[in-house]
Specification:
The chain is α/β, with parallel strands linked by helices. It has two domains: 116 residues, 2,3-Dihydroxybiphenyl 1,2-Dioxygenase, domain 1 (Roll), CATH 3.10.180; 154 residues, 2,3-Dihydroxybiphenyl 1,2-Dioxygenase, domain 1 (Roll). It has six helices and 17 strands. The mean pLDDT is 93. Keywords: Aromatic hydrocarbons catabolism, Dioxygenase, Iron, Metal-binding, Oxidoreductase, Repeat. Homotetramer. It catalyses: catechol + O2 = (2Z,4E)-2-hydroxy-6-oxohexa-2,4-dienoate + H(+). GO terms for molecular function: catechol 2,3-dioxygenase activity; ferrous iron binding.
Length: 307
């Protein structure tokens, strides 16, 4: 948090059918509906999240991600980072408070991979769902499905990953926790963190800009990941791969698709990162092991299906 960027705050996904999407994200994944707005967007949160929402769903003709937002320390941080972005040649747009229900003003900009990022500092805080903030119980007893605890990170595909990593490092103060390099040393993937987590956002080099690979949600244990696999099978949800372990970050994971074709991940475990840690580097020829540590093979769908 060297420059005041604290954590991922929200992601807005496009879905083709809102009712089907809510069955997936609420009934299967266990997200909690927090609100709706006059635009028809639905706001969801994981049960441990203090802020009002972290996932916004918008019905549209094409799936994918509209934007991802990061919460900053205070409003002064927003002003300073906006000025620094402009000084670095990045155009910014201020979005008025209330455009997202319960959220303060946001500063939007586009990173070199083509993705829309936002910074904000103020959001209504409703507390951990079902347990409160004083003498809390261990967990709510009426959680559904996978019992997702929080929106954790997203993996984004687009061109010019090195420039994007540099922007997030130099201006937003994030750290490069892990990377993939080709035999000539060119950076093909960068896993960025604003905290002690293994990553808060990650990028993989891809010729087409602004593509979403997956949005990821945290579970508490490996057993919860196995239960998620059972629920995926029970509900005939389209599965991509897993359960397995990553080499990158060492998280325990399973990938699957929402009814619109957006890829989701739920995972547990994973590494930690301090600012004095060197980036962990993976060679491109070891990418199979880096992504799927156990079988060391990449399936074509994991590499090519994007929204």
């Amino acid at each position: 948090m060297k420059k005041g960027v604290m954590r991922p705050g929200h992601i807005q996904l496009r879905v083709l059918d809102m009712d089907e999407a809510l069955k997936h994200y609420v009934d299967l994944m266990g997200m909690i509906e927090a609100d709706r707005d006059t635009q028809g967007r639905v706001y969801l949160k994981g049960w441990t999240e203090v802020d009002k929402f972290s996932l916004v769903l918008r019905e549209a003709d094409q799936p994918g991600m509209d934007f991802v937002g990061f919460k900053c320390l205070d409003e002064a941080t927003i002003d300073r980072l906006s000025a620094e972005l402009q000084a670095a040649g990045v155009a910014t747009e201020e979005i008025a408070a209330g455009d997202l229900k319960g959220c303060g003003r946001r500063i939007a900009f586009t990173v070199p991979t083509g993705h829309r990022f936002e910074l904000f500092a103020t959001k209504e805080q409703t507390g951990k769902w079902g347990v409160g903030n004083r003498n809390p119980e261990a967990w709510p007893r009426d959680l559904k499905g996978m019992k997702a605890t929080r929106f954790d990170h997203c993996l984004l595909y687009g061109p010019d990953v090195p420039a994007t990593v540099k922007l997030l490092t130099d201006v937003l103060g994030m750290d490069l926790a892990e990377q993939v390099v080709d035999p000539e040393g060119k950076q093909l993937a960068g896993f960025m963190t604003a905290s002690m987590k293994a990553h808060d956002v990650a990028f993989i080099e891809h010729p087409e800009p602004a593509k979403l690979h997956h949005a990821s949600f945290f579970l508490e244990t490996w057993n919860d990941v196995l239960k998620a696999a059972d629920l995926i099978s029970m509900t005939d949800t389209s599965i991509d791969i897993g359960p397995t372990r990553h080499g990158l970050t060492h998280g325990q994971t399973i990938y699957f698709f929402d009814p619109s074709g957006n890829r989701n991940e739920v995972f547990a475990g994973g590494d930690y990162h301090y600012p004095d840690h060197e980036p962990v580097t993976w060679d491109a020829e070891q990418l199979g092991k880096a992504i799927f540590y156990h079988d060391r093979q990449l399936n074509e769908r994991f590499l090519t299906v994007l929204t």
